[in-house]
Design a protein that fits this description.
- The structure holds 2 protein chains of 2 kinds.
- By secondary structure, chain A is mainly alpha-helical.
- Chain A has one domain.
- In chain A, helix 2 packs across helix 3 and helix 2 runs parallel beside helix 5.
- The longest helix of chain A is centred in the last third of the chain and has 31 residues.
- The mean pLDDT of chain A is 90.
- In chain B, helix 7 crosses helix 8.
- Chain B has 3 domains: 84 residues, Four Helix Bundle (Hemerythrin (Met), subunit A); 36 residues; 51 residues, no CATH class.
- Chain B is mainly alpha-helical.
- The chains are: A mainly alpha, B mainly alpha.
- The interface between A and B is large, with 52 and 47 residues.
Chain lengths: 136, 186
């Protein structure tokens, strides 16, 4: 859209910052408010901003709908496989204590991995919803 | 003390927004007011020290949900077709249900009391033990991701399923067979 020069330039500056903030919320969720759910939504909002300003067709070229569909499944898969790994190590489903020798380190690893899964699923589901509702 | 006044102001604004949403005929204005409603409830959550919930409410309620509403509005006409009118039966049911709810409020424990059931059951254990067991400063994350990991798995699955449901209902028609587009531009 060449008419909205201001919008497209502001978006070009904002989108990387939004993505960076989403990654901060994702990986700093152990220490400050935030986590996978919020980070996923913020990350998706950067793509949605791109789609609104540069057009849905361009966004479809950036992230292909079938790719984003498999990403949504991948997030749930990461989450469940952390639980299954805990079973294989001889514990209960989602018992992070066994992911490492030290139980506190195991908890850290487990929480980081499942938050990553949550973030991936939430972000890609939001983009799927946007694709479904947005006018082409 | 000042937090009490802030709470009162925010709750009054919430009620005003709710009434305004009810009075609107224009769906675009209703959507915008819904966003304001979400933002106000997010500020209420901040006052309640539930920063994580406020974060989610602001991002999802005032951000993404608003965008999805606007996307839907661009596909349909945004003037409400049905006129608002007062139905006597509906008013009666609402008044009776409301008075029962207010009557039921008297049994609810007072706000923020330390001896409330929600504070004495398990909360102490989380606060005392989670530093040792999990070692993460943000208690909300450790409850959400570790102690209640199975619940969170359910939540993620719900979001995933919702995405699949929307795809099954709406995803294909837009992409493969361009019914809506070609009808609008003959």
């Amino acid at each position: 859209m060449e008419h909205h020069l201001v919008l497209s330039i502001v978006a070009r500056i904002l989108i990387p910052l939004i993505m960076l903030f989403a990654l901060y919320v994702q990986f700093h969720g152990d220490y400050s408010p935030g986590g996978g759910f919020q980070a996923g939504v913020i990350f998706a909002s950067s793509f949605i901003l791109y789609g609104i300003i540069y057009g849905i067709e361009n966004l479809r070229e950036v992230v292909h709908p079938s790719f984003i569909r498999s990403l949504a499944a991948l997030g749930v898969l990461i989450y469940i496989s952390v639980g299954v790994v805990a079973i294989l190590k001889g514990g209960e489903f989602l018992n992070y204590n066994l992911l490492s020798e030290n139980s506190v380190t195991g908890q850290h690893i487990g929480i980081m991995l499942i938050e990553l899964g949550v973030g991936i699923t939430v972000a890609s589901t939001m983009i799927i919803l946007f694709y479904a509702f947005a006018r082409p | 003390m000042i937090i009490l006044y802030i709470n009162i102001v925010l709750l009054c604004l919430l009620v005003i927004t709710a009434i305004a949403i009810n009075q609107q005929d224009n769906l675009f204005a209703t959507t915008m007011l819904t966003g304001i409603f979400s933002l106000l409830s997010a500020s209420l959550f901040v006052c309640l020290d539930a920063v994580d919930v406020a974060f989610t409410e602001a991002a999802v309620g005032a951000g993404i949900a608003l965008i999805l509403f606007l996307g839907t509005l661009s596909l349909i006409k945004y003037k409400k077709q049905i006129k608002n009118r007062v139905s006597t039966l509906g008013l009666l049911i609402v008044i009776i249900t409301g008075s029962f709810l207010i009557y039921g409020l008297q049994d609810i424990p007072a706000f923020g009391k330390p001896e409330n059931p929600v504070q004495i059951y398990l909360a102490d254990r989380y606060i005392v033990e989670s530093k040792k067991e999990i070692g993460i400063p943000n208690l909300v994350t450790s409850v959400l991701a570790s102690y209640r990991g199975f619940d969170t798995l359910g939540e993620v699955t719900v979001i995933f399923t919702a995405g699949i449901g929307v795809l099954m209902l709406l995803g294909r028609s837009r992409h493969n067979y361009k019914g809506i587009v070609s009808r609008e531009k003959p």
